[in-house]
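Practice set, problem 2.
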Amino acid sequence: MKFQPEISYSDMLSIVFANRNQAYGAYELRRQYPQAIGRAMAYGFTLIFLFFSIPYLSSKFVDRTVEVTSTPIYEPGPPPDIDPDNPPPPPPPPAPTPLPPTRSTMQYVPPVVVRDAEAEDPDVPTVEDLVDTKADVGKKTEKGNDEAPPGIIDNPIELDYVEPPKAPVEDRVYEMFDIHKPPGFPGGEAELLKYLADNIKYPPLARENNIQGMVALSFVVDKGGRVREVHVLKDIGGGCGKEALRVVENMPKWIPGEANGHPVKVRFTLPVRFRLE
């Protein structure tokens, strides 16, 4: 085994810079590098030690106790006794709110047509006076401040709901196709047929002559549901038209028809069939 001698850092620098200019800065920097590293590490460890030791030392030698002072609480005593013979004076009334200045008003009297002997001649302003003046038109003539803003006269506290007027309905007889809701027999069409079957009596003359067919009648259902103006439009003879007319005139009240939400008169056409079994 061969012996290899150890080469120090300074010997290595001497070998590296043997044939070079050692006055150059690189040689000095490398030669002083170990000392610079040692000083830097010493400074670093010192700063780290001081960073962690200062708070500990300050907690040991600095008094951090805080003095807490209590604020006294005021406790009111019992109220003073009130002498019933000498009660305390009442509080002063609130100062009245001054009313805003009002404008001047001039009375307006509407014209009334009367006889010359009954006519009076009051001293009332004319239309020209009302147009030329700055005063407001009111119920009576009063002097005020014409430069004041106009006020609201007779201002209601609560406004009532005004229902919009409904469309007027003409008092005429409507046809079935002119209305929104047609008239109806109480109980519907089935009750109408039952009423006719229970009340119509087959005329003897028509039965003897075997008269059968359809009788058409026209009548008006008024606003109250009553049957009015009954007419026979088509008759088959033998007394069938008269019998159907009698039964229809004695009908109970119908449910009236409506147009625009109002009950109206409606003309109704009713066919009545006569048939022998």
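Problem 2, part (b): a different protein.
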Amino acid sequence: MTQATSPSSWLARFFGAQARQKLLAFASLIALIVVFSVLKPEAFMTQDNLIGILQSTTVIGVLAIASTFVIITSGIDLSVGVLMTFCAVMAGVFIVNLGFPLPLGIACALAMGALSGCVSGLVITKLKVPPFIATLGMMMLLKGLSLLITQTRPIYFSDVEGFDQISLGSLIGDVFPSLPIPNGVLIMFVVAVVCAVVLNKTALGRYTFALGSNEEAVRLSGVNVDRWKVIIYTFAGGICGISGLLIASRLNSAQPALGQGYELDAIAAVVIGGTSLSGGVGTILGTIIGAFIMSVLINGLRIMSVAQEWQMVLTGLIIILAVYTDNLRRRQN
């Protein structure tokens, strides 16, 4: 006799194991939109502002996707924001300073991101440095390299034809003029779909979850844990390279002093989206929802003329609340 399927079990199957957290995050996103729409309807619910929110989410979203892989392994990467800047700087070096063709320069910049992630992974696995310290050191190293390479001066892409179209162009707008959605948004969603497939359908994804759930059991089963950790950090570094290209394209320049602080927004987005800091749990969909929550919140506070200092205070409180919620969820499980 077939049992009736309850709405909660249907939602659990549809949204995955973390259905309740993702639904809560999505409800929070809708609530923020409603609040700011009521308080500042003439400013918030305009097409330009909504597109601006989408555009600003691209960088945080892609960085958060990279952080998701690392955090699921129960690791942490504090270098993602500065790594983004370093990749933007290297794109400027290859394309502007060295005159590489645009596709080759982009490939080289992404390779530098993957190489930086690989170095972080090697420091963690071979030198046995805790991820927090290893990536903190990498953050300072990359920040210094970015400033040294550029001599603290921005690199401009003004003479590079098509570079600004990576983020600011609109393939959708060319077909549907009433929907000028920037290419950067499309790139973010493509990255999200690809990474969701990688996380759920490939060996890399399976080992990512396994390392976060019980690393010692994975090691005892004969898996080369160190190698997979290095691969995961390398993969995440390459994704950070994409965010570097997006922000450089949006600004049409590589700003060497930019980047620090983005890692906090990325980590907040990941945790708000339901990824556990203790590892073993997380989804790309939840992370994207979390990224939109951060973007809508920051945008709404700016529209409300809230001082930047208070924006930072609220961001910090959100991170603390998200981690506390994660702890409560783990205790209940």
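Answer key, part (b): The beta strands are 155-156, 253-254. The longest strand covers residues 155-156.
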